[in-house]
Design brief:
- By secondary structure, this protein is of the alpha/beta class.
- About 45% of the residues lie in helices and about 15% in strands.
- Strands 3-2-1-11-8-7-6-5-4 form a nine-stranded parallel β-sheet, covered by helices on one side. Strands 9-10 form a two-stranded antiparallel ribbon.
- Strand 5, helix 6 and strand 6 form a beta-alpha-beta unit.
- Helix 1 crosses helix 8, helix 5 runs parallel beside helix 6 and helix 6 crosses helix 7.
């Protein structure tokens, strides 16, 4: 099969999928639009703190941080040594009590080392039913939006959540949409973008993602965090291509799961998907394998070559 024929066939399949998904979501209004592009892709390189999940302590006390294999300051200094553009300080590894002083010190360190803070992340669940638990989810999201504003993080990766036991997916998606809309006002006021991540559960497929995206009110401060390793379908690359036009942040993993089976990610293909969508923004390496200190530098060099 010729290259042109193969490309045409791929384009037809992707278009057919997108049309089918659109048909399932066409009745959901108002719709969040894809971000405005200028017709030319431009990408910068960042590294997620989650890449060191094996080394960074979760919600550390001062004593735990002193004895840890790596600290957040150490992660930032490691990233600076790799000559990349930014870091994503994942909030799971911030201390239990986060103060403005802590955030300002992190902001100072990254800036002094010539790094941007490309974004951050929260582990929210907007599918929680009405009650104190849901109010806490919304309150925590607003608090982390405030933290992001102090830190200078332009975007927060948010999750949809999971279907509560005994509930329906439709009801959970409706509550997720409502939750995003409820905190979006605050995000707009603080100038922080919300990026919904494809992260399993009710965001396992492009069709589910688009049901949520189309339900969120139209806002320039809402979009998608495209995670290259989280679609675990028969063709993850096809699914990435459907969602890529909505991406305001992008994460790259070094492995994908096709029908539940792990394989090395085709990084060149992932970057091409982003480039074809005219993506402009950060490509964030989120390494989840066993040897972060040994392997991350090589993957960053490869990604730098691909986005240049």
């Amino acid at each position: 099969m010729s290259t042109n024929t193969l490309a045409s066939r791929r384009g037809f399949l992707a278009g057919s999928l997108a049309t089918g998904i659109a048909a399932t979501t066409s009745s959901i209004v108002p719709a969040a639009d894809p971000p405005g592009r200028n017709g030319k892709s431009h990408m910068k390189l960042s590294l997620a703190g989650y890449s060191f999940s094996r080394l960074l302590p979760t919600r550390p006390t001062p004593a735990q941080e002193k004895s840890a294999k790596m600290t957040m300051d150490g992660f930032i200094k490691f990233a600076a040594d790799q000559d990349i553009d930014g870091v994503e300080p994942t909030t799971y590894y911030f201390p239990k009590t986060v103060t403005d002083e802590y955030l300002v010190n992190m902001k100072e360190l990254t800036f002094r080392l010539g790094l941007d803070i490309s974004g951050t992340a929260i582990g929210n669940d907007f599918c929680v039913a009405e009650g104190p638990g849901r109010e806490k989810q919304l309150s925590d999201a607003r608090t982390w939006i405030d933290h992001a504003a102090v830190l200078g993080a332009p975007v927060i990766r948010i999750f949809a959540g999971k279907v509560p036991k005994g509930d329906t997916e439709a009801a959970a998606i409706a509550r997720c949409i409502e939750g995003i809309n409820q905190v979006l006002d605050h995000a707009e006021k603080r100038g922080v973008f919300l990026a919904l991540e494809n992260h399993g559960g009710i965001t396992s497929t492009p069709a589910q993602m688009l049901r949520i995206i189309k339900g969120v009110r139209n806002s320039k401060f809402f979009g998608v965090n495209l995670d290259g390793g989280n679609f675990r379908t028969d063709d993850p690359y096809r699914d990435m291509a459907v969602i890529a036009p909505y991406a305001i942040n992008a994460q790259v993993k070094v492995a994908i799961f096709r029908d539940g089976k792990k394989e090395a990610a085709d990084l060149e293909r992932v970057i091409k998907i982003l480039r074809d969508a005219d993506y402009r923004g950060y490509v964030v390496l989120e390494y989840e394998e066993k040897d972060p200190l040994g392997e991350i530098p090589g993957y960053l060099r490869r990604l730098r070559e691909l986005i240049s």
